[in-house]
Amino acid sequence: MKNHPLGLSIRNVSKRYANGVQALHNVSLSIPPGMYGLLGPNGAGKSTLMRTLATLQEPDAGQIRLGDLDVVSQKEAVRETLGYLPQEFGVYPKASAEELLDYFAVLKGLTSRAQRRETTEALLRQTNLWDQRKQKLGGFSGGMKQRFGVAVALLGNPRLLIVDEPTAGLDPAERVRFLNLLSELGENSVVILSTHIVADVAELCANMAIINQGQILLEAQPLEAVAALQGRIWRKLTDKPTLPALEREHRIISAKLLSGRTLVHVYSPERPDPGFEPVEPDLEDVYFSALTGCFGPAIEQQQVEAVGL
Ligand code: ADP
């Protein structure tokens, strides 16, 4: 996986904004072709990293390579092979999907009308918008607009596709349709999905990283990370007033409401007390364990010690 010839390599990238916010702190990631999830809460630094990869802003320090291209110094060459679906983008509401895609294809350098027609038709079919191609974009639902954004981003067959928080505003059916579309994209390009929604990554990504406060907390394969938590997550149904006491005694990774009560998940190598029952861990447990500092380099060290290395 390291330094794959078609992959993306990010080394020691840092970024501090003029207002003093350190949005990225020594970020290093090796991203192979295929779907890669960048998971983190709001404000973690995801968009900053995505905009940097998309050559829209420069890091203060560090190197980024896409295959044999240097992303910081060879911006033009990277842009030719980049598709970027930002968190928010405007469309011309009075244009139809077909007209606007054709327009963007011209901007992308597709000057032959016949070639454009072939490309736009293929993309409108791939994104399931062919039947709506004559409709004005102003009347599109959130999901249709996002799929149109993917069609635009895929113009020119990018080697790197960046999709920033794409499912945030979608209803459940639109979300499934959108994730299905992403899952069908080629294995030969790098597709980075940045999101705060754990389920997006769980359903789609073979590799992922968790970021918070500008730092990478965990770089892992979701299935392996879940397996590493086996036997370490415990749950208890409790009531809100007893939560502070539980918090003092245990490493609570998450607390959520369940039928008016509070369900807590606790990280512990052994059963904390008889009131807790074991949980089959999932990626949400990985995420919250990482955010609360239970999972990451420290736990890996514990495992090494456990097997006596
Ligand atoms: P995310 O995409 O994970 O929500 P961002 O990269 O947007 O995170 O933001 C990371 C941090 O940097 C936040 O504290 C945010 O307020 C700050 N930030 C983002 N963009 C700017 C900017 N242009 N100027 C100053 N601070 C910014």
Cα end-to-end separation: 24 Å
Structural class: alpha/beta
Proportion of residues in extended strands: 25-35%
What would you say the CATH architecture of the largest domain is? 3-Layer(aba) Sandwich
- Specify the helix fraction band: 25-40%
How would you sum up the major sheet? 6 strands, mixed
What fold name goes in the CATH topology slot of the largest domain?
Rossmann fold
Low-confidence stretches: 303-309
Describe the structure.
The protein has 309 residues and is an alpha/beta fold. It has two domains: 8-220, 3-Layer(aba) Sandwich (Rossmann fold); 226-306, no CATH class. The protein has eleven helices and 14 strands. Strands 6-7-8-3-9-10 form a six-stranded mixed β-sheet, sandwiched between helices. A four-stranded antiparallel β-sheet has the order 2-1-4-5. A hairpin with a 5-residue loop joins strand 1 and strand 2. Helix 4 (113-126) crosses helix 5 (142-154) and helix 5 (142-154) packs parallel to helix 6 (172-183). The protein is globular. The chain starts with 7 loop residues before the first strand and ends with a helix. Mean pLDDT is 91; it is low at 303-309. Bound molecules: adenosine-5'-diphosphate (ADP).
